[in-house]
Structures
1.
Amino acid sequence: MTAPGGWQDAAEWPGSLPGDLLMGTVFGMVPADDITEPVGNSFPGEDRSAEWPTHARWFGVLIAALGLGLLVTAVALPPASAGLGTHKQLGLPSCNWITTMDLPCPTCGMTTAFSHTVRGEWPSAFRAQPMGLLLCLVAAMAVIGGTWTALVGNGPGRLIATSWNRWWTWTLVILVVAAWGWKIAVYRGVF
């Protein structure tokens, strides 16, 4: 089997790392400087491979900045003791679902969960909103992944794109609905 770039085996692969060969052949990932196909919205035959590392780096900076912004905001906000309402410290109004229907919305408790998670208070974060705990961890991973991409010009995007499928989508939907059900149960005093 020929690896990307025309190498026949790991000994010919730059750096001689079998793991790189495996990642290149199994997952379709190649180092950014080895991309020879048009990337993005290229016209057929137009080679934009030289632009990819720069775009990847800027995308990495953007992802890291967004994740860091979320985490810094969570650190700056003390969590509300009620398990929801931390967002009001940002000048946002109370949740309309609770005001009109006495029912928490699917995102109720997210800001509180983020605020607990960054403080290492994971049981409190889970009680406030399990999906908020998970998304805060994803934000932390985004900072790490974005920083890596900004530094090396090649990130996990292709791996994620090739491994994401309908099962991940349905798992995410089920987790969101389950977290919302949990939040409703906590709000109603079941737990």
Note: DSSP finds eight helices and no strands in the chain.
2.
Amino acid sequence: MSHPAGYLVRQELMDRERLARTLARMAHEIVERHPDMAGAALVGVRTRGVPLALRLAGLVKAACGVAPPVGALDITLYRDDLTMIAPHPVMKGTDIGFSIDHRTVVLVDDVLFTGRTVRAALDELVDFGRPARIELAVLVDRGHRELPIRADYVGKSLTTSRDDVVQVMLREEDGQDRVVLLEKERARSAAGKGRKKPVGRRRGTGSRKKGKGK
């Protein structure tokens, strides 16, 4: 997976091992809060929220012996910026093959930023039923919320500028597990630009006094 044009890696936030440890911790936090996972389900927000939800479900099963059902949510048509993202947005479809009524539903996404993606996911989710409770699990919380939304399970919180990009790469989608923080590439000034040229003596401009003839 290539970086967006005009961006450079400023910091590696997670490599494969650290990402695996982070998901394991998040799975144990879910089990601690919900010892009876029979009444819970995980729903991943496409795209990378889905493989994260599947991994968490496997880790939850390893921790408590119960594998929660996993669904996938495509929020494309619920976005409040739909007209700005693309003239013909690509839709991968929503797939929730179980009832969410009276369940605890854990929404899973890769990055929590302004909160607008989560708002769209909530809007779509309640169209499928009436869950007993909805919680949010995110791999990275980068701040800059525009809506009153908070994650219940967070892999990593960090401070970013609004121009930064948190890029999550997963083997299921990108062939590798890695999370990096990108920053805009600063334009480099041309060599010597703005420097003053050294001032030298100009030849032939000085007047010479001619000696008087004898």
Note: DSSP finds five helices and eight strands in the chain.
3.
Amino acid sequence: MSTSTPWMIAFLILFALIMLSRAGYANPPGMKAPWPGGITFQVNQGNFGYISHNDPHTFYAWDFDLPLGTPVVAVANGTIAVTGYRNDGYGNRIQIRHVNRAYSLYAHLESFLVAPGENVWQGQIIGYSGNTGYTGGPHLHFSIIDKENYSLPSIFSDIGEPVEGQCCTSQNWFVGRVVCNPRSV
């Protein structure tokens, strides 16, 4: 047995314990697809995708094939925590803090219509899909994350747990109050 084997075993045990502690779904109750109701898009990459969903920050992420400029909507009620561009691969992003203390992350956006501190309602348009950051083309990168930006297991109430290649039709109809907020990046 090599001297690195005990360290590898310890690492694997620690990794398994971390993953088990994150078991269960972390999404806000009633979470729906992040685009307007009645529209169908395909999943380009699902959870644990081989292209870029291969680390703890992206394990439980989805890439949806939203064309450039498609409206992106809040998956559940919450408060805008983060908007803006970061040079970390996600480009323009929005993060919404939900009542269960999880955050929804919307990345590679063309523009956004919200600002930190604003309350948003499920189905409200918060921005438009884009091609910013590290991408192979326009799409929406979406995941539920914790405050350290680790992705968490989640399930949509309207489209379930979509897998790569699956076409999903949103049932995320805006029923909140009317908001007119023309801010953009």
Note: Helices lie at 5-21.
4.
Amino acid sequence: MQEFIKKYSKNTLLISILLLILSIFFMLKPLSSIYILVRLFAGIVVIDGIIHIISYFKTPQEIKIFSFEFLEGLIEIIGGGLTLFFPEWISAIFPIVIGLWIMLSSVIKFQLSLNLKYVEGSRWLMLLILSIITAILGFIIILNPMISTAAITAICGVILFTSELINIIEYIFILIKLK
């Protein structure tokens, strides 16, 4: 068991060091590293689109009349797929795509909050307020695309750096204890 933990810790330590290097790249070259984030974002959007389409088909017939999940899923799959196939082109407009995606999602949540208005205990007003706030945030991203991109990438770098530094320290302690 102890040998397994040592082997696992050494492998994880190596991965953490590589991720630490990546995080430094994110912090020092935020605009250059956007290409990596574009691919990651595209994959997440495609997966989210698939989940929405599956959810649409699992939704009872009487509720489907209020559902926009099929359309949302289709848009996300097409948009994410295009992003995966044309990442260089998309990198240039990535912040605007994120802002529009946030705004589209906010409009759908806004409509959902209005649909839930007459459902007792639905907290529709909270959903309405949050949808308005996220729409404003999406609009801010669209107004300041390059600043938003650099800031988001640098923040991701700082978070990843901190996380991996903690992982490295933990695994060094584990390896010392197991000697």
Note: The chain has a mean pLDDT of 85.
